[in-house]
Amino acid sequence: MSRRDALLLRAFAGWTIFIWATRILNILRDGDPDHGFGFKAVHVVLAAVSVAFAVAAIGVVGRSRRRAAVGSDA
Known about the structure:
This protein has helices at 3-29, 37-73.
């Protein structure tokens, strides 16, 4: 994986984590009576899944870059 591709994936993953963290904080603090427990629960689950994918992507990028660095040293 090129350095540029790794940077793009890390930026995307970081942005995803930032957006969902901000969104969840806003939803949980929201006093809107239309946003009951079900709405909040669904969005927290969506956030958790999205953040898990983002963390996994960061891990894949890190492993790929380490493998590339070890391969270039040989």
